Amino acid sequence: MKIRVSHLLPYSVFAFLLTAVLVSCGGAGTTSEFTEQIDELEAKMKKWPSTEIASELIDHYQQYAGEHAGEPQKAAEAWYRKARYQLYLKRPAAATKTLRYALSHYRNTPAAYKMSLLLGDIWRTQPEKQIAAQALYKLLPEAFPSHAEEASHLKDSFGIAAIAPIPKLLDSLKLALYNSAQVRIDRSAGKQFVDIADTYALLMPAKADAPTYLFDAAKVAGYLGDFSRSIDLYQTVYEQFPDYEKTPQAIFMLGFVYDNDLKDFEKARTYYELYLQKYPEGAFAEQVSFLLENLGKSPEELLRELEAKNQQQ
To answer: Phi, psi (5° rounding) for residue 31?
Structure first.
């Protein structure tokens, strides 16, 4: 019998299955390449699984990944295991964020394929992520040629064949973003666009249109009021696509979102100064200089200063 993505796997069932896998495998396999402390914790988790040990493992894998950032295979495996334990603790949003970060930084490691599968498994448990899950499975065979046979089987098993090519799907969602009848952004279409564009850029970063869709997704996330996601996406544009024509604007937008929406003026200053350092003659240089000079000031303060200058003249 075929299993279709449209048939939701209840999260309680998914968590139970994941727990069984973690316990039976002692985490995600052998741990000899990790620290002795991690090995000991994995052994304890295998014998006496608990949320306390899982939390410790999350912290240790986070630390290990940071310490081995220059060793992609080790770091990627650590991020993957961290995400699995986040799921064990029923934190799918945190696991999703971990996997997105790991895929964006370690896309070319052996762990990338299983990280993508885990991300798809998470999304299959969430009704609002069904289209994103379908898009991910659609992309797998092309994104991971060495796993093409297995990925194609998964895609067919989940009934994904009928879904439109991802760029075409993104373009149609983009057209559906603006709800003219209600004069606002269609939130459902917007969220789907953000998730699918992000997935497309994560799995297919070599595609010429990947950074454009990612940049657009960052804008849409901002329109939806999801400023943390907007920041993450602009950051990915800046870090992963340094030669993209809108990367300077992405750096500017990082400063602007921190400044205008999150009111984190120190981080805003960091990105404004970074923009001026990298693009002193850039299209936004004058605007950035003005924003830096007036960082943290309220509109009322700015108005008073302008009025005072006018009176002096």
So the answer is: -120, 20
Residues 169 and 109 in one domain: no
Q: Is 158 exposed, middle or buried (0-12, 13-18, 19+ CB in 10 A)?
A: buried
User: Which is nearest to 112 in space by CA: 127, 99, 125?
Assistant: 99
Question: Among the three residues 195, 228, 261, which one is the final residue of a domain in this structure?
Answer: 228
Q: Output the pLDDT for position 158.
A: 66
> How far apart, in whole angstroms, are the C-alpha atoms of residue 216 and residue 65?
30
Picking from 110, 109, 111, 105, the residue whose alpha carbon sits closest to that of residue 84 is 111
pLDDT for 4 equals 39
| Domain contains 2 | yes
Question: What pLDDT score does 30 carry?
Answer: 44
Q: Which pLDDT value is given to residue 198?
A: 95
Question: SS3 string of 42-110?
Answer: HHHHHHCCCHHHHHHHHHHHHHHHHHCCCCHHHHHHHHHHHHHHHHHCCCHHHHHHHHHHHHHHCCCCC
Number of domains in the chain: 3
The answer to whether residue 137 sits within a structural domain is: no
CA-derived radius of gyration, the chain:
22
Asked whether residue 10 falls in the same domain as residue 77, the answer is yes
Structural domain boundaries enclosing 11 = 1-123
Partner residues linked to 57 by β-bridges = none
**With 0-12 CB in 10 A as exposed, 13-18 as middle and 19+ as buried, what is 161?**
exposed
Element (H, E) at 146: none
Mean pLDDT by 10 residues, the chain (313 residues): 41 52 48 80 95 97 95 96 96 95 94 96 90 91 92 73 83 84 80 95 96 97 96 96 97 96 96 97 94 85 71 67
Helix axis angle, 285-293 relative to 247-256, nearest 10°?
20
Helix (H), strand (E) at residue 179:
strand 178-179
